[in-house]
Amino acid sequence: MSAFSNLLIPAVLFFALGFFARLIKSDLRFPPDLAKILSIYLLVSIGLHGGMELANANLGEALVAVIWALVLGLLLPVIGYALLIATRRVAPLDAAAIAAHYGSVSAGTFLTAIAFLGTQGVEYERYPLIMLAVMESPAIVVGLLLASWTRRRAVAGGSLRPADEGEPGNGGLGEILREAFTNGSVVLLVGSMLIGAIANPNALEALDPFTADIFMGMLCLFLLEMGLEAGRRFGDFRRVGLILGGFGVVMPLIGGVIGLLVGHFMLGFSVGGTTLVAVLGASASYIAVPPAMRLAIPEANPSLYLTLSLGVTFPFNVVFGIPIYHHLAVLLAGWT
Amino acid sequence: MHQLVPQKLVTVIASDVLEDRLIATVRNRGASGYTLVRARGAGSDGLQSGNLDADTNLMLKLILPPERVSGLLDDLEILNRKGYHLTVYVTDVLVMGHEKFERPMDI
């Protein structure tokens, strides 16, 4: 099978349709709240399903997966920040905000990867789903710590006046942590997983038409909308420039390779599970992190991180990244 | 003849994520109420398409007795200095039933 058979998955084709519709300036538009409704549906369905399967999971293995998810969530933003600073083209606070997006994850990319593995008939472990939930928040905290460190350095260096009103986050680290971990998508995903794990399995089966039968169709609609959104952002590509645009492709590859190594060597996953961990490492958040950055790092330019995450990295991962990570996972499994 | 009383209309356009903070501010500064709508647009912060939580704006309107405006503007200026991009404008308006604008918010 060709490495890019990913392109023939309906969900990915719908993503391309959305993107194309923007390119030809079609008047196709979704009602404003539909994307939010679809992402709520996707999180609830995947949470319920994952919870059901995790009810039978091995607690020790799950814990190891959680620890590695934390390590990825804390490590990736630091790598991203260092890379961005090294380009000398990005203001440090912009770098902190962008880096936070790359340590967090995109459920849309993860679900596309699941659709890809399903089409290829590849089995995968369920633990990456817990990792998805765990990885939403730690990067936000790292981003804020990087920003606060940057501000302190600027004050010490004399290029910034000490803010007499304190930092924009306003509530100190406790408040920042509370906001990061009570984020709506985290609460929804973890809550649905708990419901899936403790609810009566027979009663959950009655939900199948809702959580399973229509799932791929809903994913298609969601990706159509994300394609429209990515197409809209892609026009802003000029604003971010070639170097920053390049970061939007290089960073997911770095994160993907780190994810591959963690999935294969540290967690001992199969090809499917390793691919999913790579996707977690590669993907950049566009739902949970951007509002948190707007609130806590107002000095950073939102059009930079939204364009990178949604206009560059998301399309790259959906179209090229996922088959590449899968291909590498196959090579890694055959090699060792 | 209707009795119309001069008041100030303050309009704030800002990122939707600031909703709680802005409402706390206007309440502390003695506004008797407010009206808020979600908004989309574009500006120096790029496109605000209104499709994602992070790129939705809000437009907040409130009517204040003229003597309370300056205190509110002080607070909004602090937000601007912290880096938030706020669009704020104040206009003169004539309101009907002005007693309503002197009662505190009941929520």
UniProtKB/TrEMBL annotation, chain A:
Top-level taxon of origin: Bacteria
PANTHER family per record: SLR1512 PROTEIN
Transmembrane segments: 6-25, 62-84, 96-117, 129-149, 180-198, 210-228, 240-263, 269-292, 304-326
Organism field: Thiocapsa imhoffii
InterPro entries: Sbt_1
UniProt keyword terms in alphabetical order: Membrane, Transmembrane, Transmembrane helix
Record flagged with keyword Ribonucleoprotein: no
Keyword Lyase found: no
Name this protein carries in UniProt: Sodium-dependent bicarbonate transport family permease
From TrEMBL, chain B:
GO molecular function, one term: enzyme regulator activity
GO terms, biological process: regulation of nitrogen utilization
Organism the protein comes from: Thiocapsa imhoffii
Coiled-coil annotated spans: none
Residues that span the membrane, as ranges: none
Protein's UniProt name: Transcriptional regulator
InterPro entries: N-reg_PII, N-reg_PII-like_a/b, N-reg_PII/ATP_PRibTrfase_C
Superkingdom of source: Bacteria
